[in-house]
Design brief:
By secondary structure, this protein is mostly helical. The protein is about 75% helix and about 0% strand. Helix 2 (about 165-175) packs antiparallel against helix 3 (about 180-195), helix 6 (about 235-250) packs antiparallel against helix 7 (about 255-265) and helix 6 runs parallel beside helix 8.
Length: about 290
């Protein structure tokens, strides 16, 4: 009897348990559907945000491209402006150099005119020479004094009114024409008139060249030495060293020639004269090798 009651109670509890389990499954299903809907909503929200971010990134990229293009254009304009300014500065520098050359030429011409005026003034202030007039002992004595003969006009210097360039060019023309004696006289006259001119070192160098062309190597060495001693730092000094060594070679002074070549190589290593001096040293070295 007791077993029967237990079985009856079990049969009565089975439908309740099934019903409770069914409700739990329904609740889980509802929760799953809710989660799915939330996931879909989140996916839609993320998609919208991604699209908005993509559009914002696209706009930012376009703005950066525009700014970069503007910067490149600005840099190009600045570079063009800098190039134009550099060209303008170059033109101004060339004009300034040309103006300086003209001012130097005018200054030298003024100095030449001043020297000429001073020479004329000194000649005018000098006492006139006394001219001896032969006296005839049989001539009657004049009652009135005879006027003195007029003083001779002062001699005008040969370089009167000449600028350094005008005095230099004829001498250089004589040199290139092979008239070396006339060239020497012209360059010496130039040095007497304009010893401080920018062309003075060139004039002295051409004197040495004129002697060299006439095979007067001793006089050429003396002239080259004057270039080196009187015009240190001038543009003719490297060539003077080299040509002095060449003239010394012609005189048979090998050691002196080698010293001149070594000096120009040491003092002016980048000059054309230094390159020629190196070749001359190689020639001297080959000549001294035993056969």
């Amino acid at each position: 009897m007791k077993t029967f009651h237990i079985a009856l109670i079990a049969l009565l509890l089975i439908p309740g348990a099934a019903l409770a389990q069914n409700r739990e499954h329904q609740q889980l299903a509802a929760d799953v559907r809710m989660l799915q809907e939330q996931a879909q909503q989140l996916a839609l929200t993320l998609a919208a945000q991604n699209q908005a971010l993509a559009e914002a990134l696209k706009a930012i990229t376009a703005r950066l491209d525009a700014q970069n293009e503007a910067m490149r254009k600005g840099f190009a304009d600045q570079r063009l402006m800098v190039d134009e300014l550099s060209d303008a500065v170059g033109v101004i520098r060339e004009r300034s150099d040309d103006t300086n050359v003209r001012i130097t030429a005018l200054r030298e011409e003024l100095e030449a005119l001043r020297n000429t005026v001073q020479a004329l003034q000194q000649a005018a202030l000098a006492p006139p020479p006394v001219v001896a007039v032969p006296v005839d002992p049989n001539a009657p004595v004049p009652t009135t004094p005879q006027p003195l003969p007029p003083a001779p006009a002062p001699a005008v210097p040969s370089t009167a009114g000449l600028s350094p360039q005008r005095l230099f060019e004829p001498a250089r023309t004589d040199y290139f024409a092979g008239q070396y004696s006339s060239a020497i006289l012209g360059f010496e006259a130039f040095l007497r008139a304009f010893p401080r001119s920018d062309l003075a070192d060139d004039a002295q160098y051409y004197i040495g060249e004129s002697y060299f062309q006439q095979n007067q190597f001793g006089d050429a060495v003396t002239a080259y030495n004057q270039v080196i001693q009187n015009y240190p730092g001038a543009n003719a000094v490297p060539d003077a060293y080299y040509k002095r060594g060449f003239a010394q070679e012609r005189l048979g002074q090998a050691d002196a020639a080698r010293s001149s070549y070594e000096t120009v190589i040491k003092s002016f290593p980048d000059s054309t004269a230094a390159q020629l001096a190196r070749q001359s040293l190689d020639r001297l070295a080959r000549a001294q090798k035993p056969q």
